[in-house]
Amino acid sequence: MPRPTAAQLVYGSCTVIFSTLVMLLLSGTSSGPGIVVVAVSALALGLVVALTAPLPKTRTVRPSGRPATVRVRREPVSAGAESMRGRTAS
Rounded to 5 degrees, what are φ and ψ at 8? Predict the structure, then answer.
């Protein structure tokens, strides 16, 4: 099983925090069992969000095994010889 990415951890954690706050505010519960039910359901929702977050795309390898062709444009260099004429060896 692959390790979760940073984005998945952030999505899941934010979901747990915000859904817990919203459910506690909307339900108005103050009893122990009610808070436990809200916390467990928020953790389950956070886990679902973290696991369904998209994974990063993996790079595919070319099936031929040959390296990609790279074209290099070569231009003649003429400035080097002219700039060295005026200099003397020290």
Answer: -65, -40
User: What percent of the chain is predicted at pLDDT more than 90?
Assistant: 40
Tokens (6 digits) for 38: 């809200």
In a domain, 27, yes or no: yes
CA atoms within 13 A on the CB side of 17: 6
Query: Could you tell me which residue, 89 or 18, shows the higher pLDDT?
Result: 18
87/47 Cα distance (integer angstroms): 73
Number of domains in the chain: 1
Residue 39 is assigned to a structural domain of this protein: yes
42, 19 contact by CB (below 8 A): yes
Lowest pLDDT segment from 13-17, 46-50, 80-84: 80-84
Pinpoint the alpha helices (H) of 1-90: 6-27, 32-52, 79-84
Question: Span 6-19, mean pLDDT?
Answer: 92
